[in-house]
UniProtKB/TrEMBL annotation:
The active site is at H121. Keywords: cAMP, Hydrolase, Metal-binding. The keyword Hydrolase applies. This is 3',5'-cyclic-AMP phosphodiesterase. Residues 371-388 have a biased composition (Polar residues). Signal peptide: none annotated. Zn(2+) 2 binds at D162. Residues 366-395 are annotated as: Disordered. Belongs to the cyclic nucleotide phosphodiesterase family. PDE7 subfamily. The lineage of its organism: Eukaryota, Metazoa, Chordata, Craniata, Vertebrata.
């Protein structure tokens, strides 16, 4: 988004930052009305990579699922392929009498509305969150009470929770006075945009047009509630409420309201589960999200704005960012999730990965500090030698 714009000419004022942040929803809006139909195969998988991708889909409920490999096998269509498969596996196509062509069209719209140039907030991240959500929906404590509507909402919210993400955070939108910040009054700006964009695509595709109006309205509102829950600024709000429920043992999953709350928690877990993955996968996600932070920092520096926390590549290292994220955000949430699920194999596996990954980041941070001290010492010696030489050359 930024690269393509800046290549066309140097931008010299802060005011023009807002133009860089013009979201690309307009490009996709009303494509059906314009007669532009996505030219994508309606088959779940092409013959060339059918075997490997299908084999991976047979293990889609495994926590070691490699979404990067799956995205390559599906030629960059991991989100569409995964959702089509999961809707079929969970019986949602039959239960809601969904048209397969319309479903595919809607999912292509969602996938295309993610910005592939974002290192982190792209369609592969959405597919990764969706796969994690599928795993959580299968946890016995939750699965035994879920309705088809709950499952569809959980999967749709996971797939669309970051749609049309610009690659910068809410504080950036606020301080550059972006129109979305004004529209949503600086509250859950991105999450509100993700939700509204999703509703727009649902209506445009007419995926749920055959359902009663009150049903579709309820689905739209619940989607909003789920997506808005991913706002990291609301983390403590949800943690306090979850802790209260667990301590009081008053969760009644027969109650639709309590089930919805746990779907919110599940989506929050899925959204930040990267530190709980295998090290190789977790490390890739960590590098991607930090690269996105650093790009924002570079943009802020370019336009003489205050550099946001975690966005200064010279000061904020990947290990330090990840250790802080794990300690203050991830661990408290996943420890409560494990308390809810009852220490299932999946929860124990995630917490074990989390601890091991945190230890590896600590080790890398220690090496960075050791290397930094060594360089500083080396610099001091060189400086001393230079001073000596200068003194020798002085008459």
């Amino acid at each position: 988004l930024f690269t393509d714009t800046t290549l066309s000419g140097e931008i010299g004022t802060k005011k023009k930052v807002k133009r860089l942040l013009s979201f690309q929803r307009y490009f996709h809006a009303s494509r059906l009305l314009r007669g532009i139909v996505p030219q994508a195969s309606l088959y779940l998988l092409d013959e060339d990579y059918l075997g490997q991708a299908r084999h991976m889909l047979s293990k889609v409920g495994m926590w070691d699922f490699d979404i990067f490999l799956f995205d390559r096998l599906t030629n960059g269509n991991s989100l569409v392929t995964l959702l089509c498969h999961l809707f079929n596996v969970h019986g949602l196509i039959h239960h809601f009498q969904l048209d397969m062509v319309t479903l595919h069209r809607f999912l292509v719209m969602v996938q295309e509305d993610y910005h592939s140039q974002n290192p982190y907030h792209n369609a592969v991240h959405a597919a990764d969150v969706t796969q994690a959500m599928h795993c959580y929906l299968r946890e016995p404590k939750l699965a035994n009470f879920l309705t088809p509507s709950d499952v569809m909402l959980g999967l749709l919210a996971a797939a669309a929770h970051d749609v049309d993400h610009p690659g910068v955070n809410q504080p950036f939108l606020i301080k550059t006075k972006h129109h979305l910040a004004s529209l949503y009054q600086n509250v859950s700006v991105l999450e509100n945009h993700h939700w509204r964009s999703t509703i727009g695509m649902l209506r445009e595709s007419r995926l749920l047009a055959h359902l009663p109006k009150e049903v579709t309205q309820d689905i739209e509102q619940q989607l909003g509630s789920l997506i808005l829950a991913t706002d990291i600024n609301r983390q403590n709000e949800f943690l306090i409420r979850l802790k209260s429920h667990l301590d009081n043992q008053d969760l009644r999953l027969e109650d639709a309201q309590d089930r919805h709350f746990m779907l919110q928690i599940a989506l929050k877990c899925a959204d930040i589960c990267n530190p709980c993955r295998l090290w190789d996968l977790s490390k890739q996600w960590s590098e991607r999200v930090c690269e996105e932070f650093y790009r924002q920092g570079d943009l802020e520096q370019k336009f003489e704005l205050e550099i946001s926390p975690l966005c200064n590549q010279q000061k904020d290292t990947i290990p330090s960012i990840q250790i802080g994220f794990m300690t203050y955000i991830v661990e408290p949430l996943f420890e409560r999730w494990a308390q809810f699920t009852g220490d299932t194999p999946l929860s124990e596996n995630m917490l074990n990965h989390l601890r091991r990954n945190k230890a590896k980041w600590r080790s890398l941070l220690h090496k960075q500090h050791s290397s930094s001290r060594s360089n500083d010492h080396s610099g001091q010696v060189t400086g001393s030698q230079e001073q000596t030489l200068n003194e020798e050359e002085t008459p």
